[in-house]
Write a structure and sequence with these properties.
Distance between the termini: 60 Å
Structural class: mainly alpha
CATH superfamily of the largest domain: Cation efflux protein transmembrane domain
CATH class of the largest domain: Mainly Alpha
Radius of gyration: 26 Å
CATH architecture of the largest domain: Up-down Bundle
Number of helices: 9
Largest sheet: 3 strands, mixed
Strand content: 5-15%
Helix content: 55-70%
CATH topology of the largest domain: Alpha-lytic protease prodomain-like
Amino acid sequence: MPSQPKPLHLPPQHLEQRLLKVSILVTALMAASGIGFGLYCRSQSIVFDGLFNAIDSSMAFLSLLVARLLAKGVGRRFQSGYWHIEPLVLTLNGSVLLMLCIYAFANAISALMHGGHELVFDSAIAYSAFTALVCALMHRYTLQGNRQVNSELIALDVESWWMSFSITASLLVAFLVGYALQGSPYAYLTPYIDPGILAVLAIALLPGPAKAVIKALGQVLKITPNALDDHVIGLMSRMSQRYGFEAFTHSIVQIGRGLFVEIHIQIPECMDAWTVSQLDDVRREIADGIGREGPDRWITIGFTRDSHWL
C-alpha cells in the first residue's frame, strides 16, 4: 500500500477529482483484500468491512462523475447546472450504507443465536492493524484536501474513511481480546466475539448514513434550510428600514453546493427616479450581505412598484 500522498496546489475542481480518484483506488484495494481475508479468517465482521469499502468505492466513482459534471458548469440542456445530481448521489450512497448496516446487524444476531463461530485470530489481527493504519492516513489526506475545495462529496468521503477507521480499530481491539482469551477459562466466549462486534458496529454506524440521507433528501426535495432563510429575512428587513422598501418576497434553495436565491422588492415612490446604476448598487449590497460569492451562487434581485409582481 503506497504511503500517504500529499494534496497538490491545484484548482479546487481538479483537486476534488484527484482526491476522489485516490480514494477510489485505495478503497477498491481495501475492499478486495477485506473480502478475501474475511473469507479466509471466517470473519463476518471483516467481510462486512470489505463490503462496506466495496460500496464506498462504487459511490466514490459516482461522486467522481458528478464532480466532472459540476466542473463543466451550465449546458444547453441543464441551464441551471448539474448541482441537483450531487444530493441524488449522496442520498443513494447513504441509503446503500444504511441498508448494509441493517443487514449486517441481522446477520450478527442470527450468528449469536446459533452459537457464533470460530475465528483465525492471528491473521485477523494483522489485517485489522494494517487496514486501520491505511484508513487513518486516508482520512487525514482527504480531510486536508477538503479544506481547500470545501466539497460535500469529499466531506462524505472524509466521513466514510473515519467510519472505516472506526470499524477496523474496533475489530482490532475485539480480535486482540479474543486472542488473549484463547486457552483461558473464558475461551468459550471466543466464538461470540466476531458476530458480537459486528452487531455493535452495525448499530454504531447507523446514525452516520442516516444523517447523510436526511440532509441530502432535504436538498432533493428543495427544503429551504432555516439558517439561510433567517439570514436572508434579517438582511432584507435591515435593507427595508434603510431604503424604505414597502415589501419583499424571497425564495431560497440549497442544492448540493449550489445556492439559488430569488428576491423581489416593492420599492417606494421616492425611488421611481433612481437609475439602473443606483439599483445595481443596492443589488450589490444585498448580494454582499448574502455572501458565498462564486460560481455556485445564483442570485436574482428584481425591483417593482406594483405589488402584483411580488
